[in-house]
Amino acid sequence: MASALEGFVILKFIVNQKSTLQYVILLVAFLFVSSCGGQSGRFVSTVPPAPPTSLSFKTTDQGLLVSWRPVPEALKYTLFWGPEKSEFRRLVESKSPAVLIKGIPNGVLNYFAVTSSSAHVESQFSHELPFIYDTDPKNAPVHLQKAQQLAHNGNLREALVHISAAINLDSSNPVYYRERAKLRDQLGLTKAAKNDLEIAEKLYMKKRLTLKQAQVDSPEND
Q1: Which residue, 37, 181, 198, 200, is the most exposed by fewest CB within 10 angstroms?
Q2: In terms of Cα–Cα distance, which of 188, 105, 177 is closest to 147?
Q3: Whether 69 and 106 share a structural domain
Q4: For the chain, what is the domain count?
Q5: For residue range 39-94, what is the model confidence (pLDDT) as tens digits?
Q6: Any residues with CB less than 8 A from the CB of 168 and at least 6 apart, and which?
Q7: Is residue 45 one of the residues assigned to a domain?
Q8: Structural domain span for residue 167
Q9: 29: in domain
Q10: What is the pTM of this model?
Q11: What single string gives the DSSP state of each residue in 66-131?
Q12: Is the dihedral of CA 134, 136, 139, 140 positive or negative?
């Protein structure tokens, strides 16, 4: 670490030199020493903090809540998003590891990433994740159709995002869970696919029991 006294000694030594080459070399050394410490003489780190991890999304009535795991060295975060991969059109800064985005369009697939920043340097982007904000239950069948089209074209991850949006809008439809199970299985997410199939079977069973009860309660059976 360099102090103001050390800088003064170097500068005085430079003035006493007659060699131009020595003058240049020592001047560079002085500037380097000065840049390594502020007025307090402390070293200023240029090592970027780690990028945030564990991005998660929650649809609320106020907007889309995006959160992530805090980074210990970070003083602030910047959230980026846009409708194309790695082509972000919007950003917002936050001192906390969460941002509530208001006014985001319904039913649009966006890609999200976030960086963390210290006092002097910004991290790399976090892992980019897609998500669809949608609050209209009538759009659930639309997302199913888009998921099937995307899957047919080989875009399995985007298809998974659309079918998950359908489930968020209508969590009682077993068809959506079966479709998501199929996609997850193709992506190698075996455990998650099995869980979706179990949910679908329970929902089918519930529907069958409801139908039977409706038949028993029918006036024709009185």
Answers
A1: 198
A2: 177
A3: yes
A4: 3
A5: 445 556 688 999 999 999 999 989 999 999 999 999 999 999 999 998 899 999 99
A6: 59, 134
A7: no
A8: 137-210
A9: yes
A10: 0.73
A11: EE----TT-SEEEEEEESBTTB--EEEEESSSEEEE-SPPTTEEEEEEEEEE-SS-B------EEE
A12: positive
